[in-house]
Amino acid sequence: MLRVLPIAGVVGTCVALTGCASTLDTVTSRTFRSSPFDTTVKMVRPEDPLVVLRANPPRSGDDRAKAMLRLQEPLTNGGSQADQDEMIDTLARAATSDPSPVLRLSAIEALARFQDQRAAGVLMLAYQNAHGRSEDATVPTARVPGARPPLAVPTGFAPDTVTTIRCRVVESLGRGGRPETIAFLASIAGSSAPGQGPEGSEDRDVRLAAVRGLGQCRHPEAVTALAQVMTAEHGKDAAVVGRAHDGLVNLTGQRIPADPARWNQVVQAGATVVPEPNVVDRAVNWVLGPP
User: Looking at the record, which segments are called Disordered (predicted)?
Assistant: First the structure.
């Protein structure tokens, strides 16, 4: 009892400092049961993410995923170019080829915060590899003379997991807002049938995420892409049109209804992208309601 009371007090403090969800996940974990004091200390003062991600032998997947979520870009936070290159390489491997979807998603989330121009390329590759398939998987067969060679079998993540990874990637690309990603996002957002765009772009959830991503890219090319999506989907998919309209209003600041003809006029006149709305702007737009 004497041992439990101080731990309970510290845990209560952690709940106040770090939030209920993450704290409850920790105190109900196997690590907490086996080493409560060390785990509690790490809750209050987490390890340096660089130390965790460099550990050899590698730490548990849970530790690495949490470290990626805490990771800040080394070069913009006092780190060296060597640190930057190492973390880009670590995150690239995790985002594009790790067998754990949790680690892939954590790496994608970390890359979304990086300003490094390599991050966008890694994220696009993560989209293409989201299926998680392994080319080396085969069906084991008995070694019988004259037997047929092993057959390749479908491998990879479940469809819902693939969709989640792809949605997270395109949303992360939008948050990065780099000009070179606009064409990639537009190819997904404008594809409503198989074969029209990158693999998975026929998935409606992925398309909606790509449209949302375009709405965060503050470049005139994104305005053009969103207007094209609105024109193509007008009268077909109200959700896609609505997301495209939200993005157009956000990028241009023009409160024009979701009318493709009027937005195409804006594009032809040379759309100007306004700075990202602040809290006051968002509050005013909320009060005014949709155009």
Answer: 136-155
